[in-house]
Amino acid sequence: MASLKDVKGIGPKSLSLLNKININDVEDLVTHYPFRYDVLKRDDLSKVEDGEKIIIDGKIESVPILMRFKAGLNKMNFRLVTQSGVVGVSIFNRAFLKSKLLVGTDVIVIGKLDKGKNVITASDIKLDVLSNKVKIEPVYHCTSGLTNKNMSNYINMALLQFGKEIPDYIPEEFREKYNFVNKKTALNIIHNPSTSEKLKEVTIRLKYEELFGFMFKINYLKQQNKKEKNGLNRQIDRDEVNIFIKKIPFKLTNDQLKALDEILNDLESPSRMNRLLQGDVGSGKTIVAFTGMYANYLCGYQSALMAPTEILATQHYNNLVELLKDTDVKVALLTGSTPKKEKNDIYKGLMLGTINIVIGTHALIQDEVIYNNLGLVITDEQHRFGVHQRANLQNKGIKPDVLYMSATPIPRTYALTIFGDMDVSTIKEKPKGRQKIATYVKKNSEIKDVLEMMYKELQDGHQVYVIAPLIEESENSDLTTVNELKDQMKLAFKDKYRIDIVHGKMAGGAKDLIMEQFKDNKVQILISTTVVEVGVDVPNATTMVIFDADRFGLSTLHQLRGRVGRGTSKSRCILISDSDTERLKIMEKEDDGFVIAEEDFKLRGHGDLFGVKQSGDMTFKIASIRNDYKILLQARKDSKAYLEDESTDKDKLKKELISSITNVN
Ligand code: ADP
Ligand code: MG
Question: Which of 289, 544, 650, 665 lies 20 to 30 angstroms, CA to CA, from 535?
């Protein structure tokens, strides 16, 4: 690929400016697409309202009068004859144009119309009037020192000099099938569109190309994973597994059984499992994971389950121990607050293989931890773990199978892309008897109503979660608000109910103690500073109150809400906020996590769904997963077919695509 400095007009200074905005070679330059287009469509004087933007063409009727006020400030006035009448034009700081603005010259004036004075205050005057009535002008992201005009010139020069060398990532068969123009033509049009129809056409083509390349890579990774056949060889005794399932105090839903079956099949298959288990909050993913770990134990391998918080790890541990109480399975809990001596014992047990299942937090992936024969790694709420940490854990085992659990339902569009190299099991069905959680959006001024609702529930013997207002400044002021809130609650409920606090800076042991007390109904109102602390299962808690609800994404709110409604009693969730209530009201209507995630996705983009930003490949130059779903589906299908078509294995393009895959992940 030609280098940028070979492009005529690009000197050392512009070169460094281009590099600054990540344009490093000719391909980067010509695929620096306009982020929008200004459509210069001529208006009619009578149809533009007072104070509105106007674009109009006409002939200059009077010699422009130039006024200079002080250095750097001047103004020019002239009269313009248009098809819809005569109008005054004034423009600041364009003294240099005076010699060109001769009487009789055709110009396009862009500006704001003052109807009363019949004057346009112009922001721009264009001399290059075309005969056609519409001109579409590309607008680029630039940087100080580099104008839109510069950018456009460089791009067009690069296309002229090197247009034929720009690689085209669409295989010929698909280019023909869809009647796509070649890459050079497409680039020429996207940077210099003459009509919006043509622009639309090549935009689709370029989006397709980008998504095709992306999906090819994802499909390739998936294929390699399946091909490798270097996973563990297991034969699972399904009868034993069924005996275990019978001991579970409830009946698994069909979706749970299906997900479990998919996991067991993966464990038996010689390929490594790389599966995402997704399900709405409360859909019962944990028990599926436990059963998978038990099956893995039956085959003689160790399992590790990593949870995002100590509280959650402890809860999982307690539940699993209870479930396995009359088996020989040895389960250990390893967290940051496990005492040193106990920790060393666990390390030893994991190394010798006397511990079969370990549950914990990040402590599981510390360097000291050596496993005897780790066969299965499960991460709960996987998006809270960085990619690096996950990789680190995977590297500990020989070739462990990996299951990710996520309670943030992933819109289909996402699942196809970031998790496109994974298999996905989905639990949609909720366990029987679950009811819809009544949700209310309230203002801070309505706190009395909120306290009344809480009081009613407390009187009925139920418990309440309160998520405290978020304070960003410091941990200390954070504590102040929680304590103030506690005082406020005390004032409202007197000493009838016990109120306690968990917060982020609390030592693990202290947190566990309070959670334990909440679980045992020794604490009735639990105030929590952070979201994470409440990833727990307390069926008697029926009310969730969230302050500053507008600060959370809908998916997060949905997860928080899912902490209640776990028992058989009617439950409610109160979202307190003075702003953004339109968005929050979606929560009043909707209780399907998948729909909510999709809404969130539409409203906020993918920014806060996962650690998406960690995988830089999600940034597309022209395509958008959100808007180009249909193209994505087609590109996915086509790229899969292309990948699987052995007759194209020798293609230069295919080889190029494969060799670029080191950039994915
Ligand atoms: P999540 O998918 O959010 O992690 P959990 O696994 O914590 O959900 O399950 C939520 C609650 O539902 C737990 O108390 C669990 O024991 C219970 N549960 C799970 N599956 C079923 C089922 N099939 N029937 C009844 N209760 C179930
Ligand atoms: Mg869970």
Answer: 665
